[in-house]
Amino acid sequence: MEEQNTLANGTPASVQIFWTKDYGMFRFLKGNRDLNEGKIKRIMRSVEDGLEFFRYCPIMVSKDAFVIDGQHRFYVCKKLGLNVYYVIVPDFTLRQVAEMNNNASKWKDKDYLNCYIDVGIEHYKVLAGFIETYQVNIGIASSLLDYGKVRGGGGRDNFRDGLFKVNYYDQAVRLMDKVADFSGYCEGYNSRNFIQAVEVLLDSPEYRHQEMLDKLKLHSLVIENRSSHKDYLQHLEDLFNFKNSKRRRIY
Predict the structure, then answer these.
(1) Are 30 and 84 found together in one domain?
(2) 29 is in which domain, residue-wise?
(3) Of 52-56, 130-134, 149-153, 162-166, where does the model show the most confidence?
(4) Residue 67 needs a FRET pair 20 to 30 A away by CA distance; which of 107, 137, 188, 210 works?
(5) Cβ(221)–Cβ(232) under 8 Å?
(6) Which pLDDT score, from 0 to 100, does residue 3 have?
(7) Nearest residue to 31 (alpha-carbon basis) of 123, 95, 121
(8) For 134, what's the count of Cα atoms within 13 Å in the CB-facing half-sphere?
(9) Are residues 196 and 163 located together in one domain of the fold?
């Protein structure tokens, strides 16, 4: 009696497998891990040895044609002129696509930034320009632009989900222009603690920005690095009062 093939007794899936040679229809995310040349060569050798398995192992793509899984198989098909077999996963968010593409190691904020710039989200392009102009990290820049403060919101999930918004551009530029005035006097001028200290000073009616800059220049003063914004505030007030006969509070 022949052994019954139980594999054929499963329920057929409703997922459709498509194929194409239009390689240009697929998209890849910036920040995706580099192709592994060794893996490509192994796949190509298998094909050359007669093992063409692509129809049984289709690549996964999002509804926007971003490759979720299978970039090495896609590359080999394109290089050899073979059909690309693929399935569409319609309910993947762009963040899930990013994480799936990089399941070997956790994405960094810069990878998410590049990802959303790549798909044309204007807010992330503005963020990248702000970072380049003022030489601050992504966390500082996104807090200033989204929430209007250097420590704001806790919106890292929003940033990674593609929901970051530029809400306080002019305000952030005004602050960072003032911060940049200290670049010649403070090595850590673009640190979160220093920026927060300047943020406090600018909110104080007692602070005079040009007077502070004049004092630093006149006496060749240097702002030393401090471990907190409160320590920076105390240090800046000390420098502001250098050689003053009467101490003035500036925050």
Answers:
(1) yes
(2) 14-103
(3) 130-134
(4) 137
(5) no
(6) 54
(7) 95
(8) 31
(9) no
